[in-house]
Amino acid sequence: MAAITGVISRPTSYAGVWSWLTTVDHKRIAVLYGATAIVFLIIAGVEAGVIRMQLASADNDLIGPGRFNQMFTMHATVMIFMVIMPLSVSFFNFVIPLAIGARDVAFPRLNALSYWIFLFGAILMHMAFLVDQVPDAGWFSYANLTEKPFSVNRGLDYWSISLLVLGSSSVAGALNFVVTIINMRAPGMSMMRMPVFVWMTLITSLLLVLAFPVITVGLIELTMDRNFGTHFFIPAEGGDPILWQHLFWVFGHPEVYILILPAMGIVSEVLPTFSGKPLFGYPFIIFSGIVIGIMGWAVWSHHMFTVGLGPVANSVFTITTMLIGVPTGIKIFNWIGTMWKGAVEFTSPMLFALGFVALFIVGGLSGVSHAVSPSDFQQQDTYYIVAHLHYVLFGGSIFGAFAGIYYWYPKLTGRMLSETLGKLNFWLMFIGMNLTFFPMHFLGLNGMPRRIYTYSAEFGWENMNQLASLGYIVLFLSFVVFFVNIWQTRNARRVSHDPWDAPGLEWSIASPPPAYNFAEIPQVEGLDQYWIDKQKARDAGTPLTEPEALVDPDSIHMPSPSYWPVFTAVGVALIGGGLLSHYAISFVGGAITMMGVIGWGNEPATAPSDHH
Predict the structure, then answer these.
(1) Any idea what DSSP says for residue 71?
(2) Largest CB tally within 10 Å, which of 57, 92, 136, 286?
(3) Separation of alpha carbons 426 and 187, rounded Å
């Protein structure tokens, strides 16, 4: 049983709630990130439901314009910063050390700190609901509508300060993964032997490290404008609201690839496994990802075609936006080439991966259509943009994440999700996704603005909106099926360590993995190392069996649990919370943060009682 469950002895204190508060195990932190993201997915889904029910019929008065503005602002902000990004980080945490043959991330306690700061930052933003001071200017919060004369309550202060807290979490986590991938690969795993998901994680992490400082500057300036009398974005005082747009989109467009590259990495792991053959054109997949990461910095002003930058700027960004579609197209052709003449198995992970490819193609095509600046003048700020955004980020990022959940769930838990419920989950989500968002293309082209809370029947938008709202109900049912599937795994059968006959190193160890991951660090000889090992075993006539648990796990040095990360994160959250209530609280938060850093710095890496 030990070989299957990977259970090892731990000190008595490493049990119950305290063990989760003090954990530095990358696998547990992955579970924390994933579970928190799912909770916020439910919250964002409820907000989306309110939006869709309000727009389901003409002249509806379910909610007023102010509440509607709050709903779409929080829905978008939560989905981007508290659902898609932490879901990606959950996969990074669980998969990366296993995929590169490491026992943990480079900085386990920094990893824990990044989670707790993320959690407290997300809670801080949602405290706006408790005081009815909810942000209402859209997820990109264009100046100068965000200035005090136009937004008198504290909602945008909650938004900006909470995002500053969340940004510090993201940068800390990203730096951790960069160092982990560069320095902790198993012997023989050169850069061009790394799994594609590891490559996409590396590129995403570098984008995070470089992009978040830009939006940090903008958020600090916005906070200072609103609270300390500066005038960065106020035209009457010599400021420039277009400066905010540049700062936001210089971050915002790399952010799009921060959200989609992890899903591309997941799909690049799932498709070869269920096609029974290696990934077609591995170097092209890698270099196209690198090109996307670089070119993502050269396209931000396609969000600003209607601002009035002039024909030269519009022409340049039209060209760069067209060009960035080339590396994406290369990936799509390589994924199709991987399946070509393969022994394709239509499992739940495979269906979600195929759904990702199909829906992302639709999102890419609509993106090309408004990459051209003249046509963008018609499409800008209409529901056509909403359709494009959701085909990329829901059809792309969420479908990719679900492919990953169904693929790695047996490795995480040792239990298999139901294939019947998984396929039902896929088809409901696929149908609901298209039913909800495809009609929005027509609504946009027919002139429906993206931030309108009601409309007159004479515009002829009601039927398409009713179809979209019906699609939301189908999507809602798909998530109900998913949660039922998760729940039923309590009694699901245990599975072997390698239920998919997969190629990655993570499948060579027990399910769930032991605390130390690998009893012996593997030696890597090429791409798809576990397929290589299995082929060698078959050639020798001795097929690989269930991996054995380490006899003496205490012989492996592993970091001890620590309460300093959560203690320090509380201080960081209080600094932000004090800026929203009373500056004395910020002072207390600063003192707690300093105490946490000092305590952390003086804490031994491994408790003496562990005898590692």
Answers:
(1) H
(2) 92
(3) 39
Write the CA distances from 592 to 121, 162, 436, 568, integer angstroms: 16, 18, 47, 7
Distance CA 2, CA 22 (A): 24
Other beta carbons within 10 angstroms of residue 447's beta carbon come to 13
**Amino acid of residue 32:** L
**H helix or E strand, kind and range, residue 516:** none
Compute the average pLDDT of residues 459-487.
Answer: 97
Q: In this structure, are residues 398 and 360 in contact, taking their beta carbons and an 8 Å threshold?
A: no
- Tokens 């919250």 belong to 43
pLDDT at 612: 36
Q: Using the predicted structure, report yes or no on whether residue 132 has a pLDDT greater than 50.
A: yes
**Residues forming a β-bridge with 449:** 382
* Structural domains present in the chain: 26-559 (1.20.210.10)
CA distance 119 to 217: 22
Dist CA 367 CA 388 (whole Å): 6
How many helices (H) and strands (E) in the chain?
20, 0
* For the chain, percent of residues with pLDDT exceeding 70: 95
Q: Which phi-psi region, left, alpha or beta, contains residue 447 (left: φ > 0; alpha: ψ -120 to 50)? A: left
For 338, other C-beta atoms within 10 Å of its C-beta total 23
> Which of the four pLDDT bands, split at 50, 70 and 90, describes residue 539?
confident
Residue 382's DSSP bridge partners are 449
Q: Cα 283 to the chain's mean position, in Å?
A: 25
Q: Which H or E run includes 546?
A: none
Residue 186's pLDDT band (cuts 50, 70, 90): very high
Interhelix angle for 196-227 vs 282-295, to 10°? 10
Residue 557 has pLDDT above 90, yes or no: no
Could you list the active site residues? 75, 104, 139, 169-170, 253, 255, 257, 268, 302-303, 328, 331, 450
Q: Decide if 427 contacts 475 (C-beta within 8 A).
A: no
- 225-284: per-residue pLDDT in tens? 999 999 999 998 899 999 999 999 999 999 999 999 999 999 999 999 999 999 999 999
Three-class secondary structure of residue 494 per DSSP: strand
Handedness of CA 507, 508, 511, 516 (dihedral sign): negative
Distant-in-sequence, close-in-space partners of 15: CB < 8 Å, separation ≥ 6? none
State residue 553 phi and psi, 5-degree precision: -60, -25
| C-alpha dist (Å) from residue 457 to 59, 129, 467 | 7, 32, 15
pTM of this prediction exceeds 0.85: yes
Q: Cα–Cα distance between 204 and 43 in angstroms, integer?
A: 26
Tokens describing residue 126 = 């949602």
Give the phi and the psi of residue 555 in degrees, each rounded to 5: -80, -10
Of 157-171, 178-192, 548-562, the one with minimum mean pLDDT is 548-562
Q: What are 194-236's pLDDT values in tens digits?
A: 999 999 999 999 999 999 999 999 999 999 999 999 999 999 8
Q: What are phi and psi of 449, to 5 degrees?
A: -65, 150
Q: What is the dihedral of CA 528, 532, 534, 538, to 10 degrees?
A: 150
The tokens describing 42, both together, are: 């439910």
Q: Which helix (H) or strand (E) holds 495?
A: none
Cα(590)–Cα(585) distance, rounded to whole angstroms?
9
